[in-house]
């Protein structure tokens, strides 16, 4: 029984610009997949000049579509929600074409240092070359001709994840933190469950009810949806605790029991998600393990 109502709209018209809010256009890149849904959304924002929220993947076709959508209007800023390649890969080509300044919360960084002998399973998706020209933090406002956005620090999916609230609109660009088509991936060491839960609470403390995510369609009644996401993770946490009480000891056993209907392609991500919960539960003293929580570790109730 699903505890969240996902919204999975039809495939977009790749290459076209869709006006999804007043003075906001969406261009979806053709990089569909199990983690990207129909592809990565880039947004053009503004009534005068443009800011682009997330350049998208390294794709000449996508860059051409963004430049076509911008037309004769200047692109002055490129805002980055987080440093995964499906969001930042096109940065170099876009900067070259527009001269825009890049803005984000700094280069890619894990949520915690790697343990001895641990390999980062997500290295392939991180953009280790991106450094924003303008580094911003929570509460900073970036403005151009006809637009202004406020940065909201939303770590969890990545440590440097930002959402952007569009001033004088009831609207947040939520990146991969909150998406309507699926829950986000919270996978150590890049992601952290405690950060993610706090970042959901950050959004709930605000009044915006419309979100435009990094993948999939617009989210309406966003605060109720964020509450459902929070409940979903709490239910997952309760399921993990129940399975540990029943005798499960490893991440593999927990995934087999809890993610029974998950396709093979997503089992690795499921394991990392369970690890993210275990890290949080160990930090809170509810679960015990030898040394730092690891994928191959043995777990029990504390
Ligand atoms: Zn993404």
Mean pLDDT over all positions: 93
Strand content: 15-25%
The geometry reads as: elongated
Structural class: alpha/beta
**Bound chemical compounds:** zinc ion
Largest sheet: 7 strands, mixed
Spatial separation of the terminal alpha carbons: 30 Å
Helix count, DSSP H or I runs of 4 or more residues: 7
Rg, nearest Å: 19 Å
Strand order of the largest sheet: 1-2-3-4-5-6-7
* Residue share in helix: 25-40%
The low-confidence parts are: none
Order of helices and strands: EEEEHEHHEEEEEEHEHHHEE
Number of strands: 14
Short description:
This protein has 302 residues and is an alpha/beta fold. It is 28% helix and 20% strand. The strands form three sheets. It has a seven-stranded mixed sheet, covered by helices on one side. The protein has a five-stranded mixed sheet with strand order 8-9-10-11-12.
């Amino acid at each position: 029984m699903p505890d969240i109502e996902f919204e999975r709209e039809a495939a977009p018209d790749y290459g076209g610009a869709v006006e999804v809010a007043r003075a906001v256009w969406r261009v979806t890149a053709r990089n569909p997949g199990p983690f990207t849904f129909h592809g990565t959304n880039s947004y053009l924002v503004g009534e005068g000049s443009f800011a682009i929220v997330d350049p998208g993947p390294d794709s000449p076709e996508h860059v051409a579509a963004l430049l076509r959508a911008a037309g004769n209007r200047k692109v002055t800023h490129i805002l980055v929600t987080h440093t995964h390649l499906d969001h930042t890969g096109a940065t170099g080509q876009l900067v070259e074409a527009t001269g825009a300044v890049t803005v984000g919360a700094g280069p890619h960084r894990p949520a915690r240092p790697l343990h001895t002998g641990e390999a980062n399973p997500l290295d392939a998706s991180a953009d280790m070359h991106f450094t924003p020209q303008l580094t911003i933090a929570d509460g900073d406002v970036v403005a151009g001709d006809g637009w202004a956005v406020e940065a909201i620090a939303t770590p969890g999916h990545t440590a440097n994840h930002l959402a952007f609230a569009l001033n004088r609109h009831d609207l947040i660009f939520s990146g991969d933190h909150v998406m309507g088509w699926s829950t986000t991936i919270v996978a150590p060491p890049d992601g952290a469950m405690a950060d993610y839960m706090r970042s959901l609470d950050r959004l709930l403390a605000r009044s915006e009810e419309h979100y435009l995510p990094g993948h999939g369609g617009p989210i309406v009644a966003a605060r109720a949806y964020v509450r459902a996401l929070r409940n979903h993770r709490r239910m997952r946490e309760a399921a993990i605790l129940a399975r540990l009480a029943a005798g499960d000891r490893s991440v593999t056993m927990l995934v087999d029991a809890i993610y029974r209907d998950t396709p093979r392609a997503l089992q690795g991500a499921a394991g990392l998600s369970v690890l993210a919960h275990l890290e949080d539960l160990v930090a809170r003293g509810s679960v015990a393990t030898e040394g730092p929580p690891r994928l191959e570790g043995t777990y029990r109730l504390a």
